[in-house]
Amino acid sequence: METRGSINPPASGRTPSDALTTFFSMGKRPTRIELLELDIDVRLADLWCEASDVSEWNLEVVAAFMRAAYGKGYCDALTEDAPGSLCRDHGYRIPFRSPTLAPEQH
After folding, report:
1. Are 41 and 19 in contact (CB under 8 A)?
2. Which helix or strand (DSSP H or E) is residue 80 part of?
3. What confidence tens digit (pLDDT) does each residue in 39-94 have?
4. Residue 77 domain-assigned?
């Protein structure tokens, strides 16, 4: 597999403790996006910890973390106590889900 060279760490190398720093540095009324970012950073704390251990970032490492974050979000969405709560809690519209057909019985 060809390596395309090193690149900078994602999100400026933020770590879980940066999420707390972000929270405490927010103004008196954080924006919806700041609160959403904080909520997502907390949900991805285990990945942020792993990211801090990476000494050399390259396209393959970034791709692996992107896949892991996507998979984590997918699993979180499937296991939410109240489906759509992340969107609802942050004032976003819950995306419409088209009805699925029952599998055919043979």
Report:
1. yes
2. none
3. 999 999 999 999 999 999 999 999 999 999 999 999 999 999 998 999 999 999 98
4. yes
Domains in the chain, number:
1
Quick one: CA dihedral 10, 12, 16, 19, positive or negative? negative
Question: CA 70 to CA 89: how far, in whole Å?
Answer: 20
pTM of the model: 0.61
Instruction: Using pLDDT thresholds of 50, 70 and 90, give the confidence band for residue 103.
Output: confident
Q: Judge whether 6 lies within some domain.
A: no
Residue 59 inside a domain? The answer is: yes
Q: Which runs of consecutive H residues, i.e. helices, occur in the chain?
A: 16-25, 32-43, 45-52, 59-79, 85-89
The answer to the question of residue 39 being in a domain is yes
Tokens of 22: 């972000």
Residue with tokens 């942050």: 90
Range of the domain at 58: 13-89
Q: What is the C-alpha separation between 43 and 74, in angstroms, rounded?
A: 12
